[in-house]
Write a structure and sequence with these properties.
By secondary structure, this protein is an alpha+beta fold. The chain folds into 2 domains: 167 residues, Thiolase/Chalcone synthase (Peroxisomal Thiolase, Chain A, domain 1), CATH 3.40.47; 123 residues, Peroxisomal Thiolase, Chain A, domain 1, CATH 3.40.47.10. 31% of the residues lie in helices and 26% in strands. It is built from 10 helices and 15 strands. Strands 1-7-6-4-5 form a 5-stranded mixed sheet, with helices on both faces. Strands 8-15-14-13 form a 4-stranded mixed sheet, sandwiched between helices. Strand 10 and strand 11 form a beta hairpin. Helix 3 crosses helix 4 and helix 7 packs parallel to helix 8. The mean pLDDT is 96. The structure holds oxa(dethia)-CoA.
Length: 336
């Protein structure tokens, strides 16, 4: 296998959201909350929710197609599709369905689950394939339909989540710099109960004295204040580790692109690094927390409206259930 000497180029992005929008005031018709509480405690004004006929494969495929179009790639030139999701349409995996829908006939496609950190975990995984030379073109998709698993009567969690998808096209390049400058990924299962989506404990008779468990999931279980504390402690720490290990000063960053969970978390991380708030990308007011989709959804919006430009340096961090968290430093190349 040829070893790639250059690195990785980020050459295309895309995103998709469902057509239904649910405002804070509309949520107030279902649970005891208010637009004012949600906006001041989270920064969220509305979110998109999949309605009849919409699903994860549809969202992921649509984001994938627009990333391919920006990159100028024919789908049959793709070697690898990784779908970061915790909410597949099919528990056996939804990536192959996306691969089929976009016509990426020669690509291998699989799901990767790391909740809200999933997109960064998938991007780093794709990078390993690209660096060994075993694949040349990879599409990393982050997509989630968490609204399937929200308890719509629990006001402490239902106000946060929405559905969406984003994708980034990554290519191995022999010459030029490396678009993925560094990364750090972490997990801590001992704190997993702060945020999880567990199976029902449902034991049924099988034959004789034997039993079997019937599959089925509960709804999202979250200790909001604990997750908040985890995020404001671990995200700055991992970003600091990454900046130190790559010798990058925070002043040289063009953008801070964090998992869009809560505006207060974004602001706290920016303050810790003295990063001006106008360098912190945020669109959670429109979409809420779309889990694995937040980072590529925000990235694509900022590329398309011209905020992120060719050569810009971006520090990104994802965090969430697992617990899992990670950070990556990357440079936008744009279409080659
Ligand atoms: O991808 C990671 C996903 N998870 C997260 O990012 C969650 C991180 N955590 C958070 O964002 C925040 O903890 C929340 C937004 C979930 C909650 O904000 P908070 O400032 O930590 O509020 P709290 O849970 O401490 O609750 C404060 C009060 C409570 O009332 P009392 O006990 O003070 O009377 C809650 O019952 O706010 C009440 N409350 C609400 N009131 C109106 C909780 N949810 C709501 C609501 N509307 N939706």
């Amino acid at each position: 296998m040829p070893e790639i000497k250059g690195g990785i180029a980020l050459v295309g992005s895309g995103s998709a959201t469902p057509s239904q929008r649910l405002t804070n005031d509309q949520l107030g018709l279902r649970v005891e909350t208010s637009d004012e509480w949600i906006r001041t405690r989270t920064g969220i004004s509305e979110r998109c929710v999949c309605g009849a006929g919409e699903n994860l494969v549809g969202l992921g495929s649509s984001a994938a197609r627009s990333a391919l179009e920006m990159a100028g790639w024919d789908s049959c030139t793709l070697d690898l599709v990784i779908l970061a999701t915790s909410t597949p349409d099919d528990l056996f995996g939804s990536a192959p369905q996306i691969q089929a829908q976009i016509g990426a006939s020669k690509a291998v496609a699989f799901d990767l689950t790391a909740a809200c950190s999933g997109f960064l975990f998938a991007m780093v995984t794709a990078a390993q394939y690209l660096r060994t030379g075993s694949v040349r073109r990879a599409l990393v998709i982050g997509a989630d339909q968490l609204t399937r698993w929200v308890d719509w009567d629990d006001r402490t969690s239902c106000v946060l989540f929405g559905d969406g998808a984003g994708a980034i096209a990554m290519e191995a390049q022999e010459e030029g710099g490396d678009g993925l400058i560094g990364f750090k990924l972490k997990s801590d299962g001992s704190r997993g109960e702060c945020l999880n989506l567990p199976q029902f404990q449902n034991s049924l008779p099988l034959v004789d004295e034997k039993t079997h468990q019937k599959g089925g999931f509960s709804t999202i279980q979250m200790n909001g204040p604990e997750v908040y504390k985890f995020a404001v402690r671990e995200v700055p720490a991992i970003l600091e580790e990454l900046l130190n290990s790559t010798n990058i000063a925070s002043e040289t960053l063009d953008w801070l692109l964090l998992h869009q969970a809560n505006q207060r978390i974004l602001d706290a991380v920016a303050d810790r690094f003295d990063i001006p708030h106008n360098k912190v990308l945020s669109n959670l007011s429109k979409y809420g927390n779309t889990s694995a989709a937040t980072i590529p959804l925000m990235f694509d919006e900022a590329v398309r409206d011209g905020r992120i430009q060719q050569g810009h340096l971006i520090a990104s961090s994802g965090f969430g259930a697992g617990l899992s968290w990670g950070a990556a430093l990357f440079r936008w190349q744009g279409p080659l």
